[in-house]
Amino acid sequence: MELLRQQVSNLPIDQAADAVAQAMKFQAIRGYQKDLEAGKPASESLAKWAPMMFSTPKSATMSGAASLIRASQPRVMNAGSVLYRVPQTGNAVPLTPAPTKVPAPNRFDLQEHSSYLTQARQIEGELAKDPTGPDAEAQRKEIQRLQGEAAKVRQRNTPTGGESAKRVSTQAEYDALKSGEIYIGKNGHRYRKP
Fold first, then answer.
1. How far, in Å, CA of 120 to CA of 62, rounded?
2. Residue 177 resides in a domain
């Protein structure tokens, strides 16, 4: 069948339709002969293979030829937001990279990040009222410090290549953790050591 697909893909559509019709007839005659050799009654074999042997509607052969021509070309398939090129034989080749799963940030980190930004906004509001006041320079430094702390929280929650939280089940494992390190407790929830 593969050889037929390759040969048909190089023919004009009318010639391809005739080739498909002849191939179907040959397949039917050969199937009929095999059934007779296997000892099946002629009436059963003829009932099974006669539609392919004696009827060749033009529309069926044209569509058969067209499908063979289309099948000989690689197709593109979408599988879960990744596009693949699927050739006639062999393995599918990804055309787009697979999406990476990003873990959700720890809810404690979200609260901490939010508090730093909220404090920075409050100080910015005070600074906007009196930008040249006696505490203006100290307020600017405090805003920079809070923004730096918020950046540290974001960096801590940015996934790095293969790094994952450690699973902690004993007190000794907990004691071995560094301060601020994220771990997975016995209940499966993520925590950060104070």
1. 72
2. no
